[in-house]
Amino acid sequence: MAVETARVPTTYGARYLQQLCKHWSHKLDVQLSDNEGIVRFPNAVATMTADAEALTVAVEASDDETLQRMKGVVASHLDRFAFKEAPLPFAWSKEQ
Fold it and tell me: Does domain 2-84 have CATH number 3.40.250.10?
């Protein structure tokens, strides 16, 4: 499995992850709490955790091509909900 994580500075992380998870819950398996959301795509999983200063997003996929595509999907959807702050600064890093 390939995994990359980004810590995105924003004070609205909890709001964005709530909006995004509710948006995707109509078509995908989503687990949601106040400050954490997990979205299960057909070939990937996105886990988002919010704190007072940032939204941490981890994307895990079966292969690198899917990982790269899903990072773009998650980032573009978050930018839509964060339109006042967009584009959000995603600095992706590989997990070891």
Answer: no
